[in-house]
Amino acid sequence: MKLRSNNRIDAGFSLSSMTDLVFLLLIFFVIISTMVSPTTMPVDLPVSANKTKEKPRVGVRIDADGAFSVNDKPVAPLDLEGALKDKMALFEAKDPSLVIHVDQRVPAGVTVGVMDIAKRNNWKVIIATRPK
Q1: What is the pLDDT of residue 41?
Q2: With a threshold of 0.70, does the pTM exceed it?
Q3: 123: number of Cβ within 10 Å
Q4: Which among 131, 127, 122, 132 is positioned nearest to 59, based on CA atoms?
Q5: Matching CATH number, 58-127, of 3.30.720.120, 3.30.43.10, 3.30.420.270, 3.40.1440.60
Q6: I want to staple 56 with a disulfide (CB 3.0 to 4.6 A). Which of 1, 34, 86, 99 is the partner?
Q7: Cα separation, 48 vs 23, whole angstroms
Q8: What is the residue extent of each domain of the chain?
Q9: DSSP H or E run through 98
Q10: Among residues 96, 101, 69, which one has the least CA distance to residue 85?
Q11: Which CA distances in Å does 8 have to 5, 11, 13?
Q12: Which is more confident, 83 or 32?
């Protein structure tokens, strides 16, 4: 007597979970690739739609010819850090912030130098831009 089993093994499988997984991996890699190399997109730094709510009291202006001024008073490049410390001491804020107005034609190294001064003194930095 031959007994037949009612349980059959189905050899097929559903691809819906596989397509969901591939789609999620695709989204993950697209997002990560934009984070890894943000310099590949063209950026015009002097124009921005961002607005800040902070009211900085100390400002540095760097003209196209490389002249520095702190709160509209001319300062020699070597005396910039001392002048900024004096102005920041007058306001004694909890979180001192510094706004930098930089002309488009100024090399980025000059701006980084001012930002380095701010980092050494634990000041917040705001780079002023034109609205779009």
Answers
A1: 33
A2: no
A3: 20
A4: 127
A5: 3.30.420.270
A6: 99
A7: 34
A8: 58-127
A9: strand 97-102
A10: 96
A11: 8, 9, 14
A12: 83
How much is the pLDDT for 44? 36
Phi-psi region of 72 (alpha: psi -120 to 50; beta: other; left: phi over 0): left
CB 58 within 8 A of CB 87: yes
Q: Is 71 within 8 Å of 87 (Cβ atoms)? A: yes
Q: Which amino acid is at 102?
A: V
- Dig out the tokens for 99 from the structure: 């706004």
Closest listed residue to residue 98, CA positions, set 51, 48, 61, 44: 61
Q: Note the residue count of the chain.
A: 132
Q: Considering Cα of 12, then 17, then 18, then 20, what sign does the dihedral take?
A: positive
Question: CA-CA distance, 129 to 15, in Å (whole number)?
Answer: 51
Q: For residue 95, count CB atoms less than 10 angstroms from its CB and return exposed for 0-12, middle for 13-18, buried for 19 or more.
A: exposed
Lookup: tokens for 123: 């000041």
Residue with tokens 């590949």: 40
